[in-house]
Specification:
heterodimer; A: about 170 residues; mainly alpha; Arp2/3 complex 21 kDa subunit ARPC3; about 5% strand; B: alpha+beta; Thrombin, subunit H; 6-stranded antiparallel β-barrel; 8 helices; 12 strands
Amino acid sequence: MRSVAIVLAFIAALILQTTILPIIRLGGAIPDLLLVLVIFNALFNGSLAGGAVGFTVGLAQDLLGGHYLGLGALGGFVAGYLIGCLERRVNIDNILVTFILVLAGSFLASVVYFLGQGILNSSLSFRLLWQLSAPGALYDACLAALLFRPLARLFGGPVPGRVEIVQTGKIIYR
Amino acid sequence: MFSSGFKRTLIILAVMAIFCLGLARLVPSFAASPLVGKIHEVLAPVQSRVMMGWRGGASILSYFTGMRRLQAENSQLQQQVMNLTWESNRLNQYVYESQQLQKLLDFKNRNVTRFTLLGARVISRSPTDWYSTLVLDRGSEDGVKKDMVVVSDAGLIGRVDAVWPHTSDILLILDQEGAVGAMISESGTQGVIQGDKDNPGMLQMIDMPYDAKPVAGQTVMTSGLGGIFPGDIPIGKVLTFNSGGSDLDQYALVQPDVDFTRIEEVFIITASRSVPEPVASQPAPEEQTTAAEAPEQPAATTPTQTGSSQGAAAQTTNSGRQKSASPAQSAPATVQSAPATVQQAPARTATPPAQTSPGAAPAQTAAPTRWAPQSQPATPTPWSNQAQWPSQSQGTDQTQWTD
C-alpha cells in the first residue's frame, strides 16, 4: 500500500514538475520536487533503491523535457546512490540534517549534469554551474524542510523485516 | 587502501556514467520519438487539468492582490487628481488675473494721452451696507490726493474720499454721497447719477430736464461737470425710465458698467492732460474790460476774477436757465463771454497742467476766484463748481478731455 502511495507521489511530482513548478521560480531557480523525493527515498531505503529510483526519475525527466537522454538519469542515480549510502549513518529525524543532505544531493546532481554536458558539448562554464546550481539546491533544500513531515511519514513508515527500536520519540533503524 | 564498499561504489558509478553518457551520445534526438509521444498523450489530460486549476487559483489570488494594488493605485491617483485640480484652479486664477491685467493695461494705453493713471489694488471693502467704500493700497506717499477719480477698464468707480500715507478710502458712485454729474451720450441729456437705495448695486439718474425721456440701452457717461470727474468716462447703461409723479420725481435706472463686487485692480487718475488752446497766454486788459462791461458779464467775470469759477461754470450747465433769466442779453453775453472765458482758459491751462485734483487746481488758476456765487438753483448740486471747465459754456469739450 505504501509502495502504491510512493508511486502515486512520484507521478504527481512529475506532473507538477512539468506544469506548475516551472512557474513559481525564485531568483530564476525551479524547484526539483522529483529529486527531493529521490533523496528522501534514498535516505529511508538505501543506496540501491535510491540509485534505481533516481535513475528512473532522471530518465523520465530527460524524456519529458531534457536535451540529452541519460544525463538526468545519471545525475539522479548519482545523487540517489550516494545519499542512500548514508542511510544508516545519519539521524534522518533531524530536519536540519535532511536540509543539508537534500542541499548536497541536489548540488551533486546538478554538477553531474553539467559535467556530462561539458563532456558532450566540449564546453564547460563553472560560473554558469554556480549560478544555476546553487539557487536550485537551496530551493530544493527549503522545499524538503517544508515537506519533511509528510515525506518522512510517506517514506519512513514501518518497513517489513526491518527492526525498529523506538527510544524516547526517536526511531533508530538497525 | 580503499575498502571494498568504496571500490564497489566507484565501479557502479563509473559503469552508470559510461552507460548514461553513451546513451546520451548515441540517442541524439528523441523528442519526436513515439515513446515520448505516448508519454505526452498519457500525461496531457492530467497536465491540462492541473494547469486549469492553477490558473483559476492564480486568478482568485490575483483578484485579492490586484485589489490591494488597485486600492493603492486609486488612492494615489485620487491624490494626484486633487493636486492637479488645485494646480488647475491656481492656473485658471492666473489666467483670469492675467486677462484682467491685460484689460487694465489696454485701458491705460488707450488713455495714456488723456490721463496719468496710477494702478492700485483693492485691499478692503466696507463691512456694512450703509456706505459703499473701498480701501486701496495707494496713499499720499504715492501721490494720491483727495477727490482724485478712480476708474477701471470698465468705467467709473468713484473718488478718493480720504487719504493716508499708504492707503486711501474710495467713495463709490453707488454710495448716496457719491453723486456724479452725468450725461446720456446719445441724447446729450444731462443729469446726476447717484446710488439707488432701493436697488443696491444700481444707480439712478436724476435731475434731468423735464422733457428728457431716456431710452433703455442708452449709454451714460460723466459729463465733466462738477470739477471732480472728467468727462466721457463710462458709467453705465439705462435700464428703465420712471417718469414718477412729477418732473422732479422722474429718474432713470442705470446699470453700472463696473462689476463692483469683483473689483480687484483699479486706476487712480492722478492727472489729466488738456489740449492747448490757440489763444494768447496773457489776456489783453481792454478785452477783459470789454468782458467786464458786458451786461451780464459783471455777474460772470467779476466773480471769476475774484477767484470763483462758478460763474462761468454756471453758464455752462445752467446756460438754459441763465438764458431764460436774461434772454435779451443772453446772446451778446454769450458772445462776449466767450473771449473772457477763452482768455481765462489759457491762464488756467498755462498753470501746471492737467491737474484734475481739485485741491491743487484752484490754487494754480490765474483767475482769482472760480466759485463765484450765481443765480443758482435752490438745490445745490455736486457739479456746482463748474469753473474748471469754462469751455463747456460753448457746448464743446475743448480743453482738458480731448484725446
